[in-house]
Amino acid sequence: MNKAWIFLFFGALLEVGWVTGLKHSHDLLTWSGTIVAIVVSFALLIKATADLPVGTAYAVFTGLGTTGTVFLEMLVFGEPFKVMKILLILVLLIGVIGLKVVTGEAKEEGDSA
Questions:
Q1: Is 111 inside any structural domain?
Q2: Which residue pairs from 15-22 have beta carbons closer than 8 angstroms and sit at least 24 positions apart in sequence?
Q3: Which pTM does this prediction carry?
């Protein structure tokens, strides 16, 4: 896995943090953490798009962020567990994995096809 995918993965992890923070922040410290997570997650997304197609990077970023947020809300904050929700998250993850598989390495200028 190259650096762009690693940046994208960590950006998505931070997205889980800031999306959860939007709902659960209640004081200056938690709001500050949420704002820092927003800035850093989007900085990592931008860095990843230097080497990955923007559409693919954003779809993976939001897909992983959505998945992580749903699971975090269920495991930590008592959101009800629903089988249909889990099945739909699995469909989303299959799409994200598919995008990773079909997005090849960027060719260097001068490489032969």
A1: no
A2: 15/41, 15/61, 15/62, 15/64, 15/65, 15/68, 15/69, 16/65, 16/68, 16/69, 16/72, 17/41, 19/65, 19/69, 20/69, 20/72, 20/73, 20/77
A3: 0.78
